[in-house]
Please model this.
Amino acid sequence: MKVYKFGGASVKDATGIKNLGKIVQEENSSLVVVVSAFGKTTNALEKVLNAWFAGDGHHEVLLDEVYKLHLLIINELFGNNSEVKAKIDISFMHLKDYLMSASKGKYDFEYDQVVSHGEIWSTLIVEAFLRSTGLNAKWIDARELLITDDRFRDANIHWGESSVRIKKAIDFSKNQIFLTQGFIGGTIAGQSTTLGREGSDYTAAVIANLLDAECVVIWKDVPGILNADPKWRTDAIRLSEISYKEAVEMTFSGAKVIHPKTIKPLHNKNIPLYVKSFINPQERGTIVKADAKPEKIVPIFIRKEDQVLISILPKDFSFAMGDNLSRVFHSFIINGIKVNLVQASAVSIDVCVDDDRLKVDSLIKDLAQEFKTIYNDEAEMLSIRHYTKEAINSITLDREILLEQRTRRIVRFVVKKQDKPV
Ligand code: ASP
Ligand code: MG
Model:
């Protein structure tokens, strides 16, 4: 069996869903199809949630806009009298009722209860469409199959329980195609959870791992994994093959093409990952696997925006390494801050992290007694794997470099953000 994953950009309108149908139709193997919310629905639902929390009464209008978008797609696919419309109407009504209830829980909890709807709506509509084309696709509810802990917005999979449930639900002797939601799961107690933004790739990898899939295919609106974000560098080219290690390093450094957590479950079972163009499905795309043999090694450029560079200096001028190091990193962990780069000298530790002001402020407060902290916001982290002199020149020219770090294979620069040309 194979796992296919379609992201929001692939299912942003009726044409996209029809295209998904064609791609699924052409596959002869048994399939689990993982689908994200339509287009930018997740962003839109975040806005609904924030308006609800702000209590300004605006959330209903925003939710209505989300509804209209789904209705438009339904009308285009099925005309205006369809069974699936009734299902979607009921689900929207439930959500509206939920948002009318006076008491709000913690933000992260409510986030998952509200935002998880996007994937439910998209998969109900895709299921109806596949059935209308004669494909016998069975809709399954990831909230009851992918069991997680209750770390809302960044839930961790309970592998044992999920394995039992998924294997029971997915029986290919009964159906050849199963359709489920990316990004979402549920606790044992039945509360919805989410796995982190853009987490549908990870869902596909988890299911592939649990079912020992032959491969995972992520269908995207780009021709595969490129050596740079084409919005940043117009000379970006497709990489034909890369290793799991290369893929992990790239995504961790900030390459957005696949979610960083996707690779581990695939690596652990030696399952190859294909990243292919949704627009030109016959093209080869990129394959990620253990024994990748790239045609030629080219520099890979990765940009991580919205960074802060924090320098942490022990006030008593003691060495930064040793006890101070564990004290400092403990504070990063308890404040939920992921570290993107570390560099230490005798009396200072420099750390580059995502610019999440609340978390960074809380970290600085926590360290304030023993450490002086200096921070540079408005920063970006630029990395080049397999760097060359020309490659370095091409990204550092005219940039104010705050920090540089170099190993044999990779060079990283933390630079000041550039003002966008107007
Ligand atoms: N719909 C979710 C998001 O936009 C998950 C995903 O697309 O992978 O973050
Ligand atoms: Mg998405």
Notes: The mean pLDDT is 94. The chain has two domains: 2-220, 300-416. Residues 2-220 form a domain with the Carbamate kinase fold (CATH 3.40.1160.10). The pocket of aspartic acid (ligand 1) is lined by residues 7-8, 36-37, 42, 118, 182-183, 197-200 (CB under 6 Å).
